[in-house]
Design a protein that fits this description.
The complex is a heterodimer. Helix content of chain A is 28%, strand content 24%. By secondary structure, chain A is an alpha+beta fold. Chain B has two domains: 3-79, Ubiquitin-like (UB roll); 80-183, [2Fe-2S]-binding domain (DNA polymerase, domain 1), CATH 1.10.150.120. Chain B is globular and about 50 Å long. The chains are: A alpha+beta, B alpha+beta.
Chain lengths: 787, 183
Amino acid sequence: MSVAEGSQATGWVGRAMRRKEDPKLITGRGNYVDDIVLPGTLYAAFVRSPEAHARISSIDAAAAKERDDVVLVATAEDIEGLTGPLPMAWVPPGVEVHTPEHWPLAKGSVKHVGDPVAVVFGTDRYSVVDAADEVAVEYDPLPVIVDPEEALKDETIIHESLGTNVSHRWSLGGGDLDKGFAEADHIVERRVVNHRTAGGAIEPRGVLADYRGDELTIWSSTQVPHFVRLFLGLLLNMSQDRIRAIAPDVGGGFGSKLQMYGEEVVLAWAARKLGRPVKWIETRSENMQACHHGRDQIADVRMGMKSDGTITAFHVKILADFGAYHMLLTPTIPSLGAFVMQGCYRMPAVLTEITGVFTNKFATDAIRGAGRPEATHMIETVLEQAAHELDIDPVEIRRRNFIPADAFPYETPIGVVYDSGNYQGTLDKLLEHFDLQAFRAEQERMRGEGVYRGVGFSTYTEICGIAPSRVTGPTGFGLQAGGWESAVVSVHTTGAVTVYTGTSPHGQGEDTTFAQIVADKLGTTPDNVDVLHGDTSTGPEGLNTYGSRSTAVGGEAIARASDKVQTKAKAIVAHQLEADPADIEVRDGKFSVKGSPDKAMTLAEVAGQAYIPLNLPEGMEPGLSETSFYDPENFVFPFGAHAAVVDVDIETGKVDLVRYLGVDDCGPAINPKIIDGQLHGGIVHAVGQVLYERIHYDEEGQLVTGTFVDYALPSAAEIPMFELDRTETPSPTNSLGVKGVGEAGTIGASAAVTNAVIDALRPIGVTWLNMPLSPSRVWAAIQEARG
Amino acid sequence: MSTHSVSLTVNGEPRTVEVEARRLLVHALREDLGLTGTHVGCDTSNCGACTIHLDGQAVKSCTVLAVQADGAEITTIEGLASDGQLHPVQEAFWEHHGLQCGYCTPGMIMASADLLNRNPNPSEAEVRHALEGNLCRCTGYHNIVKAVLSAAESGRGGTIEDGRLSEQQRENIERVAETGLGA
């Protein structure tokens, strides 16, 4: 199967262009934080706790301080002048959320392995690590809790000031759940464990901070430079205009760099205190301990259905392990799943109940999908189980429950309005590429030969394009921020175009995607459009990159700013050519008079008029630059249908992914090449979670999988070629019709792979498996099923 | 701590660095020689972001001490293209979208180029096996494998357009030069 390459596109939108970003990156000319060198830079090394829970009884830094190559050793007491602890900005509405104080350096006690207790600044990158080793910290160990169900008992309290380990309890539901279950002929109940994972961006975090005069510049490997500026200003009591935050080239984020990290605060503080540039580059081992984790939910799930497979009620009780602290968005991550807890299906009644608890691990927060992969995994694994219990084909049971394509916009029982969808359409197209009947025959034949092959399906919809301010903001869902995005489109005198976006792409190819949008609007070419982002000094405030928002919100802002430029350009052209502005169109790379294509001006000619303003329409200001702030009316709801084929070695429990198909719908494709790339990476992120990756703490709270030796990211050798296709159902939410695609693959894939493994082992008697499907776990399930 | 003088040929040029015995080759390249295209993504030699060619073979430069490389010929990502001509693997990564954030890319390209030196016509399985020591979180490997297979077929690179003017940019500037603004 090959994806249409957009050859039908008449403009730049729709073309599978190669990326503008790439020439520097393939020649080693990228510019990541650690590549930036300032004269006189000091290096930082953090002293981190080896204990999961302990009082700090003493810190002796004398030996480190005596070294010639050490300039400063600081502990929590030394970080003077902070206005408060690290921020937590999003709580679910209507409940009290317990939030422990979380300081950049631990005060009095440590709550997880890797909690920083001191920082050393020195002149040499190697010796500062030696110096950090010479800081002697004595700990008085406290009881450790790593099991969230133990934490719930409140027998040992992690944060004494809170008096409980429970962060909060919150629920979101709609419809009559009791009635739904009373009407059910069959109820499926399962415990769905979605284990803790890491973001795994290949570039670890890094910070360079420089303070000159009264201005702070901070380069950080972050997804959210605008948040970094805002919160640094608040925490350091500095005016926002005195701070410039820069996300240079950033080597992947996947949510893990959507954060205001303590290390960023410490480095900014030190740059101000020392009056010298300071740099900290995280090691991978530090990253595994102290860069936020994701998932970590235990869910007790009940699905009620009629004997024909029609769902009558869905009840989910989630116990979310938040780890030791609330980071920026920690308490709300599971709630994002509750927004789409009915997936692609009509459900008369649905209820999600969430309890969040603290444990002696590092914090969880947004990791690719953030709550929605967990929700999809529950829905899709339990529904497929129901299909088998009711002896209904797993494809057919989905068909019977899909929200029909003519029902959109569709308001769910909890009040979320799905803007668009055609779930049957993606599933039908998937099955054009995957002959299920033929597969079943092959499966049967292969079992005869001792090969256990299985297929698993997953159909998903997700909520993204974060976010309408009225829904997610302070008066809505409690986010202490808006959800809009900013854009500035400036045409220069020669007709070259600079676009500023408040999003902060870090690998998603938005330089190219955005340039394609602008090129069509302004009758130019993408290589004539430069896209600026990730530097708070280059444009108005922005809200950064996360939640599959960059194109659906940031791209729409750019489209709107481009439209304003286009309107002004048309007025200039009409004035010059003595035509009506309404008769001017952008056609074949020019602004021309409808019906008279010879009467035309290029963008450069228009710009010339705008900047040498001798003959502009009456009252028009010079220049050709426009700004837009776009606040979406609704979220967007991408969807898709996936299928995974696996072989399971029943002697060892090893699972091989042999085929993976996906048909996804993120609206009209702007750059098909980039969309497919986002899906490939998203799918493998989930495959990694299902088969290989696990953040595992032992009973003492020691991180067992603390390096890439133990925390196994998938390599090329484990992954097959993907078979992807698309449908294009425009979103009515924005003028481009686009939805996000950065998280879609991750949201869709874990259930497909898990269902495939169960399907392979069903003849042996295996009817359920929880991730990670490591050989030992699969082997044990096979042994148990065989008795 | 005492230092050692290490002489290397890096991307065709003789270079000498004074380093501590414990200094990793990757840090000598990045910090002493300013070649920041070679990246560090882990501390256990798993990720391969630091892959370079040492005496014609791909090695992880975080696993070699600079002093061990004394006398060696080294090629880094900065030295792979020559005379403005991209190496076929670079060209193929660009054409087939074999990179997203770009952080693993230099190592991935160096490992791929090494594979094609040893095996000019690898199978898909051979490409995947050869890149097992290079981790990428963005691409899911699909387009990386596609790029390497394509580079093996084509065997030629393209030109670096980075920093050059597009046709339209050139036209615009020429037009302004000839006719003045507002023409």
